[in-house]
Queue: 4 jobs
Job 1
Amino acid sequence: MSQTLAYKNEEFLDSDDARPLRILAEYLEPMQAFQQARIRDTIVFFGSARLAPEGPLGQYYDAARELARLVTLWSKNLASHAHRYVVCTGGGGGIMEAANRGASEAGGRTVGLNIGLPHEQRPNPYVTRELTFEFHYFFMRKLWFAHLARALVVFPGGFGTLDELTEILTLTQTRKIDRPIPIVLYGSSYWKEVINFEALVKHGMIAPEDLALFQYADDPAAALALMQAGIAAEPDEAVPCLAHSRTARR
């Protein structure tokens, strides 16, 4: 009686015992795709899947679309053998769709790191096909957001957006990401109402200098300028194609 090879045994691969293999696959598959596509680094867009262009906060959809278009036009005019500053999103609707759409309309490649959820989300049609990924594990998806990011722009959002924002803020604050990442909070009135960063300083939860980890913007051109200035402050040759964690000092 012939036996099924372990790596072809779907029942085993779906089991609890094979969870480490599934986690590793969600690291290795995107890595292979990014290397084959010569994606050197990304500009990451976070924001709510619930923001539609025709909704009450539709101006944020339009702004994300325009900013992604500007980022992509800038990227395409850079002299490089690789694809630089590629727009990357969570691959779903709302702000994610808007950013992928703007990048696509500018004729650029664009990344979507989608995750399967019960009620949302489905990959939007503007993500470059070979750069569309489906994740099961949130933490592996967040690793790929951080791994190639050179800048981050965060539009209004809920729990998921807050989780993603604070993850990058923590990695930057603790210097676990071995390079500075400009973080732009788009929509100052929204963010100043939703998160009282000054109160965190007042109560000693963060240091006053931690407020310099991010900046606010209220129009696409200003957001692009802030990201460009932050990126230019770091020597390009010091930035690897894949991020390295800072080695803990003993």
Job 2
Amino acid sequence: MNKHSREVSIEILVGLFMFTVLIALGVFTIVLSRENLLKKAHSYEFVFSEVGGLREGDNVYLRGMNIGRVKQTSLDNSRVHVFVTLDVPIKLRSGYSIEVIDASMLGGKYLKIYEGPENAAPLGENMTILGQKPVDMIQELNKAVSGLQTMINSVEQGQGTLGKLLRDDAIYNGLAELTDDLKTIVGRVEAGEGSVGKLLKDETVYNDAAATMASLRAISGRLEAGEGALGKLLSEDAALYDDVSATMVAVRDISESISAGEGTLGKLVRDAKLYDETTSLVEDVRAAVDDLREASPITSFGSVIFGAF
């Protein structure tokens, strides 16, 4: 009896141990799978032309946050149906996008959801949600490497500007001559030759410039002090400015009066009859002066004759 009881106790302990292990495995499985049994799951179906290696269990991100995972993928003719379970509901609008993104250069994928602009119209019920074709990073990298290799080959063959720089001796010689010319110019400048050299070496130009700046400072000081006509115009004393303004107003009034035909000058400008009469009077005066000029010798001769008696 003691032996039998001992065997039964061992079997019970082993059973309890295995039961505990199974419970622990279940808990670890739930934790590692990140399933929340107490939270309501929201299921959605997305349709892709291809998914680029997206697998069941991959994460789903919305606005940079992990909100669920891929539950299942299935191939239906030329389309791939992706079923996801999300922790929160999503409201897709016009302009939305569902993309398969590379998790890293080492591999892995995740699903990125963009709900669309906030002011866009929401999608209707029972609409098929289409995902975008993923970008194959390896393929794009191969294209970039291929383009780089093509460019290197072109350079090696002397094609293009860079290729000619590496292959054509004429360009090198031209650059060498240009360098020599620059050295000559720099040497002349350092020796004080030419206008630039004199600016760097001759203190006379500097002194003249300094004197000019001093004169300008003096003039600006006089203007700020209100000296001279321009200084008075710029000064805070508004008397001269008011006088000039009054003069301009008077001149404007006179010009407006003349334009309106007021006064003698205005009538001369506007009245054609007065203008014609004035012109006729001037012509008569000119004719009288001409007659007097012609009669002047006769008058002088008569004065001499009658003066003798």
Job 3
Amino acid sequence: MTAVADLLCTVAHPDDESFGLGSLLAGAVAAGARVVLVCATRGEAGEDHTGLGRTGDVLGAAREQELRAAAAELGVAEIEVLGFADSGWDGPARANALVSAGEALVTAVHHALARHRPRVVVTLDPTGSDGHRDHAAIGAATTTAFARHGDATTLYHWCLLRSVMDRWVAERGGDAGVYASPRLGRPDGDITTVVDGEAVLDVRRRAIAAHASQASPFLGLSSDLEAAFLTQDHLVRVVPPWPGGPREQTLTGLFPTH
């Protein structure tokens, strides 16, 4: 029987786990959690920044290797790649694309939850606040699958913070590209949970570096803004519902209390 996961995280593409959730994953591992990562695609619709010109399935295979190398740096115990097609940023989606997978995606995530029986589930923000349709798709599907699963105790949506994204766009200026408009990030007032990741910053940097085919969104940022991205994770606790009050600093239910 598959070992129980303390924490299971679902992401859309290789590099989401490092560019996005890296400090959260590394911090949970450092605290003794068994962490499982479920990645929906191989990221084959992305760009290859190595100059090798890889595209399609060749790039997807390379990015999966990068995913596994990065996850090893973070200490992830197990990885599943679901094999849906990367939808790309916009435009018509190819067959089996994540953005149009619908019930098939929900079912695949539900099966992963049943296999790993996690205590806590973290997924990407389904509101689309970071602008990528695949991120919203995996977030929505995971939220639905969690409701069907019934065993996990806690569900979180991991978010980019609006005030931090505003600063990122301001620093990038003309290089902000697709992130410049519309305004991105989850409103600061929605955030229920802020987890400090400064102690695992070096681990996070090694995981980011493992994604050699991808351009890091943090290159060239001021040290203060880079720290805002890399040393804190911002989440919205969905289940159990957030009662209000001061933001929590750890993930509820990550470790058994008995």
Job 4
Amino acid sequence: MNLRPAAVFGLLKGMVTMNRLLPFLLTVPMLAQANNPHAARLEEAGAVFQEIMGIKEKSIPQELLDKAECAIIVPGVKSGAFIVGAKYGRGFVTCRKPGGGWSAPGAVKMEGGSLGFQIGGSETDVVMLVMNERGAKRLFEKSKFTVGGEAMAAAGPVGRASSAETDATMRAEILSWSRSRGAFAGISVKGSTMREDEDAIKALYGKKLKNSEIVYGNSPAPASAAKLMGLLSKHSSRKGK
């Protein structure tokens, strides 16, 4: 193929332009992810779970994690100064998939004036396990779910398996823990409410979805969920259920 000098020049110019644009084109998705506070919070949820499970003697008991149908992680629940005792946080919920593994995460807002934090702190990470399928279904039945109302709740035990065998944990559909200032303990979240975080869902998935559609559907998980889902699978895959 014979190319005229002008054509060769044009081709080379185009290649130089593309080489200049390529780093920019590769950077755009990363910038979009970095500028998405919901993606950052989802990555933080993964970091919270990793740190909690990293302390073997003071983490969530393995039997309880293996029995759980869903996990809810709300990093950095804040105490509101404008209303005495008010709490507010935004987090994520993921549930077991029929063939094993965990679903893409839905997003929730958590609110309540009676969270009963036992270890103090202006910001507290909250972890909840939904222990059976009935509790999981109730979680998604209504737009607003009240912990301790629609499902029995209890503070979760910490540490070795033997500490998990109590009447409260055997009956409860939701078990909950909190971490503040490095301390990890069971916590009562009765009376707190959860609802779908529509803004976070749209930002993470690019469209309006219900949490039930995400958790029980085939929505691909956003990249920012990789750490959380990987850790849940590592610690409790329950394959072939």
